[in-house]
Amino acid sequence: PKGKRRRFRFFKHLPPGQRLLLYMVLPALSGVVTSSSVPAGKSDATGVIRVSNVEPFSLAYRMDVLEDELRKASDKKRLRAGVFAVEPKSGRYVELDARAPYSAASIIKVPVFVSLLVALDRGELKPTDLLTIRQDLITGGSGYLQWRPVDSKLSVKDTAELMIVISDNTATNMLIDALGGREKLNNQFKSWGLKHTRLNNMLADLEGTNTTSPFELAYLMGRIDNGELISDQSREWMYNVMKRTRTRTLLPQGIGPGAKIFHKTGDIGRMVGDAGIVEAPNGHRFIVAVQVERPHNDRRANEMIRSLSKLIYKSFCQDSATDGSMIESATHSPAR
Question: How far apart are CA 327 and CA 238, in angstroms?
Fold first, then answer.
């Protein structure tokens, strides 16, 4: 074509020195546009977090049979359930109303924890740095730091562990403050690809204004599990802390003997939920998040999560001999 001849004639008629310079510059420019030496999700020298455009897990096989079971089990008057579970290795997954925003309650502490780990990896904070219990950060609800004297000091490491293990709300506020405040964290959440995960108020957010979704909780944990966003050392500490979560009345009640779960719960009047990573003794590993909005403190929601957890565990953790038939029977439908 004439257009092509013109372009090649342009390069051909350049002086040799200019042609050599152009051939050197073009590949470098192409590398800037198409790739980066920094792995997706890791921070470069400027502290910019890079997040891959590819989801951290394949959504290859939608488990329609399990989804129908979950839909029936969650069909309760005045309860609204969001469920997302995926086995990253196989791409088997299930979801029910999982991408809409729900009140987050204390599950919001998972992205706050990740923000802290990012700051630790960057050197912006140290685990031994001392935080002060200020009057404006003290709040009610779960945790015992609210009873400590004002101006007491606590290390970043101890504060983070209290935030997750016993879900201490005052500890959470101390970390949000140390990390630069709600809007800074919200911008960070957005940079990770989270659309509905927002801190609209400090803890304790009893009105349920802070939001997230089951899919975004699984998405975030999938990125962490893939080695993105934080260092391997930080990920190891994160899992070690989350496996010590004291509240064991939700997802853990549905998993089998010998299984492990790294998770975080949330419980306020209008919503109860749990999200984490489950490792079964037979090697199956899946990410699961469930949130149920309810009339004030309706305990049917807690029982529902236990029932849903049992169904999910049973389906995902069958013996390897049955995996092939399960995958074949799953519908190859795209994520919705």
Answer: 32
CA atoms within 13 A on the CB side of 319: 2
Q: How far is CA 9 from CA 14, 15, 19, 58, 123, in A?
A: 9, 12, 12, 46, 53
Smallest CA-to-CA distance from 89 within 224, 225, 215 is with: 225
Q: Which of 196, 212, 202, 150 is nearest to 176 (CA)?
A: 202
- Residue among 163, 174, 182, 177 nearest 107 (CA): 163
Q: Is the pLDDT of residue 161 over 70?
A: yes
For 149-158, the CB contacts below 8 A with 24+ separation are 154/130, 155/127, 155/128, 155/129, 155/130, 155/131, 156/116, 156/120, 156/125, 156/126, 156/127, 156/128, 156/129, 156/130, 156/131, 157/127, 157/128
Taking CA atoms, 195 is separated from 36, 62, 321, in Å, by 24, 23, 39
Two structure tokens written together for 183: 């809007």
What does the pLDDT read at residue 55? Answer: 82
Confidence check: pLDDT of 189 > 60: yes
Buried b (16+ CB within 10 A) or exposed e, 90-118: bbbbbbbbbbebbbbbbbbbbbbbbbbbb
Q: Which two tokens stand for residue 216?
A: 């975004």
Find, among 196, 192, 217, the residue nearest to 276 by Cα.
217
Q: Count the Cβ atoms, other than its own, within 10 Å of residue 325.
A: 10
- pLDDT tens-digit map of 44-59: 443 445 555 578 999 9
- The amino acid occupying position 125 is L
